[in-house]
Amino acid sequence: MLNDLKKDGEIRMRKSLESLESGFSRVRTGRAHPAMLKDVMVPYYGSDVPLNQVASVGVDDARTLVVQPFERSMISTIDKAIRESDLGLNPISGDVIRVPLPALTEETRKNMQKLARGEAENARVAIRNIRRDVLGDVKDLLKEKEITEDDERKATDDVQKLTDKYIAEVEKQLAAKEAELLQV
Q1: Which fold would CATH assign to domain 2-26+105-182?
Q2: How far is the C-alpha of 78 from the C-alpha of 76, rounded, in Å?
Q3: In angstroms, rounded to a whole number, what is the distance separating the alpha carbons of residues 146 and 2?
Q4: CB hemisphere CA count around 32 (13 angstroms)
Q5: Residues 6+ apart with CB under 8 A from 159
Q6: Distance between CA 9 and CA 86 in Å, rounded?
Q7: Considering the chain, what percentage of its residues have pLDDT values greater than 70?
Q8: Residue 123 pLDDT > 90, yes or no?
Q9: What's the predicted TM-score (pTM) here?
Q10: What confidence category does residue 140 fall into, taking pLDDT thresholds of 50, 70 and 90?
Q11: Is the pLDDT of residue 184 over 70?
């Protein structure tokens, strides 16, 4: 029973880390990466769909993304969606859409660093909430006399070690992202 709770907690903490990685992929560094356009929504036959459902996104060089629409008629719509996406990008339309990434200024780097720190803090909060949930379940088991106090103490220590491990991983990923952002 306790092992199931710990396994569930670890799975949920791992998912928080995956969510952090996804959040970091949207934080722009000096390099072009297709995931930067992952959240761009494009109007398509009356509903908004993710860009990757109406076009393929690739990297032309370190500072340019290439968007190849599946339908030629979508070029202007995709161009407009990218411009309005609050990413600060100005696509160039032709047969394909080229999205040059502007050089990061010191101010932009600091803003991206703030975004990365915010993503990391959200991950830490999620991991701590998972710890709280698991420990609450352990305390409920103790109240119902399904486990002993020694079992509860050991489970609390194990959950704390797990939490510390995942928080350390968040810190490691944040440090790597900040180093990538500050690299000129």
Answers
A1: Topoisomerase I; Chain A, domain 4 (1.10.132)
A2: 6
A3: 10
A4: 17
A5: 6, 9, 131, 134, 135, 138
A6: 35
A7: 98
A8: yes
A9: 0.73
A10: very high
A11: no
